Amino acid sequence: MAKKWLGSLLLPLPLLLIMTFLGLWLLHKQHKRSGRTLVLLSLLSLCLLSTRPVANALMAPLETQYPTHLPALRTQGQDPIQDIVVLGAAQAADPSLPLLSQLGHAGLVRISEGVSLAHAYPEARLIVSGYAGGEGRSSAELYAAVAQALGIAESRIIALPLPKDTAEEAMAIAPLIHGRHALLVTSASHMPRAMALFHHQGAKPTAAPVGHHVKESQGSLPLYTYLPSARYLERSEIAWHEYLGLLKEAVSGQL
Length: 255
What we know:
By secondary structure, this protein is of the alpha/beta class. The chain has helices at about 1-10, 10-30, 30-50, 50-65, 105-120, 140-150, 165-175, 190-200, 230-250, and strands spanning about 85, 125-130, 155-160, 180-185, 205-210.
């Protein structure tokens, strides 16, 4: 729990707010130069992280490491797809809501792609994971329910509701797909960390990234899209979270 609190405080918005309040405190204590510098630096950083160019610059290196479109996986000489792995994401298991509304955006795009691939490769198993995190149902259970509602037979689905993070998911799933041709479905920004953790466990799935944030328009964009926006701050925060995750796994020796 302490690690989660620390990780949350290191995200851009809490960290920059802490810097701002520290700067105001320094101003109150008559340390005017240090206080002004800290307040201006934190506010400028917050503005920049809330703009489209900066958010995309942070996100693009993560999302472009693996190809957007899967290659032809059933060409002659290649093994058929045997497993489709969908990693967990945050959910709000409110039974009063429709099933799809109980999934967050990341979870929704991940299981949608997983189900699409399961229909494309009808002999493959669908392995879904993710714990409850204080909710009534785990993301693995919600994924399984969505898959069945969209026409995937229950006998094809393996649900793993216990793994709490990507490292635990890799540990639990790697033995199931060892020596098998598997596709790994997760958000494009999350894919580099996920693939590294699966490789660390001896599994070598094929990446199937979804949920891309960096989308370039073919036409010219209006100027207001370059103004600071909460949407772009969220994009920067997602990228920041992934870089922190990569750093943590590298320090712990898992990458």
